[in-house]
Amino acid sequence: MSVISVNDISSLEVLNNALKQFYEQGLATVQGFASTLYKKIEYFESKESILLEKVRIAESALDSCYIARANDPPEYKRSCYSQEEALERAIANYNRYQTIMSQVMQTQSEYYASTETYNQSLHNLSSSSIPKLNAVITDMRKYYNDNEIIFSDRATLPGGINIGGTGFSGISDNEFEKFVRGNSPFGQKEAVVDEASRNNLSIEPTVDFETGDITQSAPLIAAGAITLGALITGGIILAKGAKNDEVGFLQNQLIDLGYKGLNGTVLISDDDFGNNTENALKKFQKDFGLDQTGVADEKVWKKLEEIKEGVPTFFELKKFFPGGKNENLAALWSTLKTDGEKFGITDKTLLAHFLAQVGHESIGLSSTTESLNYSVEALAETFKEHFFINDIPNGKYDAKLYGYINDANGKRIQYSREQDIGNIAYGNKNGNGNFESGEGYKYRGRGFMQLTGKDNFQGFTNFMKETGRSDVDFVEEPHRVAEPTYSALSALWFFKNKVLEDKRIINKSNPTVKQYTLVVNGGYNGLEDREKYFDKAIKMLGIEGIDKRI
Question: Lowest-confidence range among 150-154, 299-303, 424-428?
């Protein structure tokens, strides 16, 4: 008479329960996805009237501006370019809505097709695989009874259960192998359930029928052993509702990167995956080009590991630009890592010069659109070839009529005429038309290197289209250069094509910050600040000793 552990036969029942659990979760996923999809369609449909109303308001504001400024004298004629840009943005937003809505409807069609296939798979599982495994268990119990095999009450499980081998004591290997492989729904394959898998299978899942999310709350990795590598190899997935040490590990990673919860709420590490953690994770995913699922999966773990690589690493770049916005830092780090050398940044000295110019032009990666909100004094100093102050015959325009003025108490009593400043300062330059064309203001600086002028926007558009990177027409939509990814790419494009290929740089064996500044800026505005950034960059990159003023 043979003896077999009650827990040995329970192993097959664990597997059987796992299949049933998978079937139930599959149904929940289909239902949850359907609910989410319908909510998205309802949400986007509700947005159409709002976006159309914004277009109407922008059109009305532009008409009012034209009427109000129709009688301005030519020499002091005010422009309506902010209203024109507002209308352009409103129309562009509505057009993007139409594109997104089309994609959502396409997703709906694909959902119907894929759901049919998925439902068939679930049907096969419920009508074939589960019954077959039940039959195996029933036949095994009969086999035990027929052979007078009794059960002991031993509670110790082996380290792993091998359905095709020696996991069952009291039965010879050949007998068991012949029996199971002849009856198992797995055919000739071995199905192994190790201790970790058994623990995971025993966790009761939580199904969110609104979103289709399925989460587990028990610890997935041994305490003290949580690393990004372990999360990747363990295939760990975390979503809202999870409560374990792995969630705390994720929260600490996001906190170190400076991410916050809803409405800027400070994120805390409490091992509870709630709304704040989901919001911070979605922001991280957006910044680093991942799908904004709000679920921490292999892609998230790998990206968190990846940002510790590169020259500079993301953390070094964040320290270098402490006031930089995370989305800007992520875009610059990612683009430098993948495309830096392609755009001519082939050594650390060139990288230091690039970072010095970007640092000043973008105010430490905090701004990607040029502000022309100057005081009277600053306006005359910055654009001295166009504006004069106190009868100093620099330019032809009186700065006191264009810059802002504060009274003795600091109250603003005159606002700067930013559109007019742009059209005066940048009119008839770099492909821009005259003052009346409005192109000086329209093509003011955008991006990390402050791409300026219609010719440069056209050149960047041509490059992006020719290389298949984007089909955006930046001449028609210049404000989009200010988006993080385009800000980074436009800076690299300008640095390679307009700076490194400039004769004033090519003809120098060791160009200085001052020489780079002349090419980038057209003068020496902000030279001291650019030199400070350069000093900081060579220290970070470990190439100290270079004299920036030679």
Answer: 150-154
- The CATH code of the domain at 216-306 is 1.10.101.10
Query: What is the pLDDT, as a whole number, of residue 138?
Result: 64
Structural fold of domain 3-193: Helix Hairpins (1.10.287)
Contact 447, 481 (CB under 8 A): yes
Rounded to an integer, the average pLDDT of 64-92 is 75
Residue 124 has a pLDDT of 62
Would the pLDDT of 6 be above 90? no
Q: Residue 362 in contact with residue 327, Cβ under 8 Å?
A: no
> What residue type is 320 in one-letter code?
F
Q: Backbone dihedral region of 126: left (phi > 0), alpha (psi from -120 to 50 degrees) or beta?
A: alpha
Please spell the DSSP secondary structure of 419-478, one letter per residue.
HHHHHHHHTTSTT---GGGTHHHHT--BTTTTB-SHHHHHHHHHHHHHTTS----TTT-G
Q: pTM to 2 decimals?
A: 0.61
198-206 contacts at long range (C-beta below 8 A, 24 or more positions apart): 198/11, 198/14, 198/157, 198/161, 201/14, 201/17, 201/18, 201/21, 202/14, 205/21, 205/25, 206/241
Quickly tell me which residue has 């990612």 as its tokens: 334
Q: What is the pLDDT of residue 341?
A: 93
- Helices and strands in the chain: count of H runs, count of E runs: 20, 10
